[in-house]
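TICKET: design request
STATUS: open
ATTACHED STRUCTURE:
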């Protein structure tokens, strides 16, 4: 199982960006998918998570600004980020609970994509 994240970059404060993450490999189905971030000198933290059924949960500081979504047919998860702030600067990682078979689940991480919010 592999996760490939993309879409990071440099954006000005108040700007928008969308991250994408593709899951590939031996996939029976995918349960929760999520985005985490790690800022310099800080621990990795959960940003948003979405269940297979579309239920979402967000970290408090990004509520109302970020939206997580998924395309189950394409095995993709997205993070739409609006009203970006300098404190959103971090490496963003996608994560997924992937059922390789009906009875075996594997948690997998993407490689990380850098978001820098600066003027």
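STATUS: resolved
RESOLUTION: sequence designed for all positions
ATTACHED SEQUENCE:
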């Amino acid at each position: 199982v592999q996760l490939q994240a993309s879409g990071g970059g440099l954006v000005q404060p108040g700007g928008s960006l969308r991250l994408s993450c593709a899951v590939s490999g031996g996939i029976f189905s995918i349960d929760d998918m999520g985005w985490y971030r790690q800022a310099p000198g800080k621990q990795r933290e959960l940003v948003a998570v979405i269940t297979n059924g579309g239920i979402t949960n967000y970290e408090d500081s990004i509520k109302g600004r970020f939206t997580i979504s998924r395309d189950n047919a394409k095995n993709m998860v997205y993070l739409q980020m609006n009203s970006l702030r300098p404190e959103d600067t971090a490496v963003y990682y996608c994560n997924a609970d992937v059922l390789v078979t009906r009875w075996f689940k594997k948690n997998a991480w993407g490689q990380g994509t850098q978001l820098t919010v600066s003027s």
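CLOSING REMARK: The chain has a mean pLDDT of 96. The radius of gyration is 14 Å.
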